Amino acid sequence: MSPPKDTTQRYQKLKDTVNKYRTLRHVYDKEEISLEAEDALKKELADLEREYPSLLQPDSPSLRVGGEPLPQFKKVRHTVAQWSFNDAFGEQDIRDFDARVKRMLKVPSAAEGLGVKEVEYICELKIDGLKVVLTYEQGILKTAATRGDGAVGEDVTHNVRTIESVPLVLEKPVDCVVEGEVWMSEKTLHDLNEAQKKAGKPLYANPRNAAAGSIRQLDPRVAASRKLDSYIYDVAATSDTLPPTQKEELEYLRTLGFKVNQHARLARNVDEILAFYDGWKTKQKAQGYWIDGVVVKVNRRDYQERLGFTGKAPRFAVAFKFPAEQVTTVVEAIELQVGRTGVLTPVAHLRPVLVAGSTVSRATLHNEDEIKRLDVRVNDTVILQKAGDVIPDIVRVLTELRPKGTKPYRWPIRVPECGGEGIIERVLGEAAWRCKNKNSFAVMRRKLRHFASRGALNIEGLGESTVDALLEAGFVNSFDDFFTLKEGDALELEGFAEVSAKKLIESIQKTAKHVSFPRLLNAISIPHVGEETGLLLAQHFKTIDDVAAATQEELSAIDGIGPIVAKGVVEWFGAKENKELVKKLKKVLHIVSEKVSGKKDLSLAGKTFVLTGGLSSMSRDEAKEKIRQLGGSVSSSVSKKTSYVVAGDEAGSKLDKARELRVAVLEEEEFLKMLK
């Protein structure tokens, strides 16, 4: 079958583009796009060749040769808490980290003319394997455990003993706890997968998964056959005298008999950190083991001790991650989405593609300035990555694959969903556009839906379809209208009978009698104010009138509220229609100004929780409140930054994601103990 003309053109562009980037990479040592993005282009090329064999040409790149914890494991309580690192994803993050360190250490700047030396850092490769904690008594290996949830891990001593690079007896008879990474070489992974294939067993996706799976084998003979290796990088505790610097600590580990990665380097300033990072970003694949970034630590131990820890991570170290997984796909359409504050968000509809473990078909383009910066157009081929392994983000357009005749995206003058004439306007001082009519049907529908939703006032029985029906029938046009509804109004809606109408009105009236102040702040659609910002405001102001009276300077002074949020709050409360709305809400609602605890010195401070499934002892909202009262925060999605996933009955895909990312999972009983 002959390919269509546009397919032939696409194939030729793909082939030429892949060959261009291959030449830049291998001949000139230039990496203009990631290897992952290049591989994605190659895959599309090969797929076209399989579908249309006549396309294959002699210079085609395709012709080049080129756990889940087991119940049988014993639990081990760590004698030293196991921390995870905060992440940095770019140069500015590292500069911010450096500034925080110096600020906390009160190191004067060179501009003050005091000639103070820079803080020294040590850069170590972040090996992508499975973290292990080794405990020695009198120099003899007693236990080896996984990190687990940081407090309790799994006893994997029987398997770690089979790793040749892990000493069973140290060179000195010391008591110590050391930390490191167990890893598998890519060659070993290849040989293992060949054996798996012959045995008809599933293949391992990468060396990290293979190492984790091997160390969790119940039969140590299996682990021994996997040829695992290790690097040890930290002394968590020792009966010996610790060296004064991290660099000397690595040498100390070598003298004890541990295998230590030889590529650690001192950096006297941020520029040297960046140089080390950039060097390893391009040669990370050449080591035979996976490296997913660089760990940057303050070198002096006394400085480390002064900096201390947050609730989840050391303040003296950060994980400088390499770029997230990248793939290529095609933009099929760009559409504007109307938000509850009337702001228009451009969204790219993509040819579905798998990135960082999930299929992505949409990506936000943020605003007009971002579209112009990228020059992204419909039918463009783009590089997509997950920023921080979570949010799909278009990072580059491959203009060499752009079809002829494509035109730059133009913002429309009118958007039908904005109601009336549908006129839109650019927000002064921002990159955002919004509906000029802030009370259009589409905007009001989103506002009213949000007001009643679980994350806001959580009015039982008032779901999106019921809100829409009430709006379309003309019964509600503002938030306060919900609380003046009668049973007769609900009876006029399709699907409502006397019993259901009565239940709905009772539910609305019940909500009106006790409305949490922070929930209300989130519910009324103040620009940039969500759950967490609502809580911050409630920590600093007793009533909604106090918030309304606050100045932009007073709001900006609150840690966690920046000038844009402060400006949005002041402008919202300053608008005449919103002043009237607040008056009406105060008449129909009993707003409870609950004392919201600050997060300092609380047991869950710095911990992030994700809830999935139903809890028998409390509702999900009650669980969220308890977490926040103890200083923790709640997220809707699981990422590497998640501290715990609380799994209730019928837990969903978030539990699978937690297991995939090795995030600690709490059953309801464990969660309740933590709350106590």
- Class by SSE composition: alpha+beta
CATH topology of the largest domain, by name, is D-amino Acid Aminotransferase, Chain A, domain 1
Number of helices: 24
Number of domains: 6
**Name of the CATH first level of the largest domain:** Alpha Beta
Largest sheet: 7 strands, antiparallel
Mean pLDDT: 84
Q: Outline the low-pLDDT stretches.
A: 64-70, 110-116
Task: Note the overall shape.
Answer: globular
Radius of gyration: 29 Å
Please describe what this structure looks like.
The protein is an alpha+beta fold and 676 residues long. The chain folds into 6 domains: 5-63, Orthogonal Bundle (Helix Hairpins), CATH 1.10.287.610; 75-321, 2-Layer Sandwich (D-amino Acid Aminotransferase, Chain A, domain 1), CATH 3.30.470.30; 326-401, OB fold (Dihydrolipoamide Acetyltransferase, E2P) (Beta Barrel); 441-513, DNA polymerase, domain 1 (Orthogonal Bundle); 516-592, Orthogonal Bundle (DNA polymerase, domain 1), CATH 1.10.150.20; 608-675, BRCT domain (Rossmann fold, 3-Layer(aba) Sandwich), CATH 3.40.50.10190. Strands 12, 13, 14, 15, 16, 17 and 18 form a 7-stranded antiparallel beta sheet that branches. The protein starts with a helix and ends with a helix.
Q: What attributes characterize this protein structure?
A:
24 helices; globular; five-stranded mixed sheet; Helix Hairpins; 36% helix; alpha+beta; 676 residues; OB fold (Dihydrolipoamide Acetyltransferase, E2P); seven-stranded antiparallel sheet; 6 domains; 24 strands; D-amino Acid Aminotransferase, Chain A, domain 1
